[in-house]
Specification:
Chains A, B, C, D: InterPro entries: Metal_Tscrpt_repr (IPR003735), Metal_Tscrpt_repr_sf (IPR038390). The structure is a homotetramer. Chain A has about 100 residues and is mainly α. Chain A is built from 4 helices and no strands. The first copy, chain A, has a single domain, classed as Up-down Bundle (Methane Monooxygenase Hydroxylase, Chain G, domain 1). Chains in contact: A-B, A-D, B-C, C-D. At the A-B interface, helix 2 and helix 3 of A face helix 2 and helix 3 of B.
């Protein structure tokens, strides 16, 4: 990943929100490997399910960070610009993502 | 991961279910990296949220595989053995994981 | 509701679970009327949404009561009888209801 | 319910959205009575759970109607007025109601 790939284009997601999401995603990558390991080691199903639930909760955290950024930036700008399609887009997002 | 680490201990999760879960988890690991890349590339929030939703759906698939195995093996055995605690454990699992 | 309508047929749901569910459902009926009243009175959307969320939580409680009874009675009996279809039925129930 | 009780105050929820929600709520009241009847009649747990799931889906419909109205009216107005608290309120609503 070069500077030019990561740098200037961060227009939609604010830098702090992006950094927060990237830190969470790195941790999630590790948690997914943890679930893989637990299954390989033959751990009790309930422990595996608990760990999967933790990954899902962590992903909800990323989703929430990106959603808040989306509301504060994209949705807010679109409403101020009287974009007639923003409410449809928003409803679609809300009922697909938590 | 050596044979001895992965082999015999797979007592709780049946081999086919474990293999199915491991294949899904490998794909999920790649999807998490995909979300990371999208955020770094400054992609539109809605596209990022869509991709996160795909990861969550894929994780639900793993959870479902492990849960079915848990019901078919652990819960079934416990009920046949008249384990008095199995319904409490099951309810706890069901209302933590979906 | 006469004795004959309510009496003997309570075979699937245990009397205590049925009574618990019926008390909750009577309360839920009142809560639904409460939401109707709030909308008629022109109350703030967030207050209406909060009240709808309360009804949903109360319904989850009924669902949980009936599900626990289903697991303890129907699923337990079916597993002891080696019913080959019970795991399919259970998975279908779990992924349709919370 | 008199004219004066229902009429002018419908400021937050638009008349068409309120009418839509009220029709749905009347149907939901009937569905709740249906669940009560099924439990009294000793119906199979899975049928009761299916009916409860239908009520929950119907309530989600009301919630969605009120949420869309909230976004189109209250949130839109607040954003145009630069209300600094609207994003916090919205996030709170979204993560309590789906």
């Amino acid at each position: 990943m070069t500077e030019s790939e990561t740098g200037q284009q961060r227009q939609f997601i604010a830098p702090e929100a992006a950094d927060d999401a990237l830190v969470r995603l790195a941790k999630i990558g590790g948690q997914v490997q943890g679930v893989t390991r637990m299954i390989r080691e033959g751990r009790y199903c309930v422990d595996v399910l608990d760990q999967i639930a933790s990954v899902q909760k962590a992903l909800d955290g990323v989703s929430r960070t990106v959603l808040r950024n989306y509301l504060e930036r994209c949705v807010t700008d679109a409403i101020k610009d009287d974009d007639p399609l923003i409410h449809d887009e928003l409803m679609k997002v809300l009922f697909r993502h938590r």
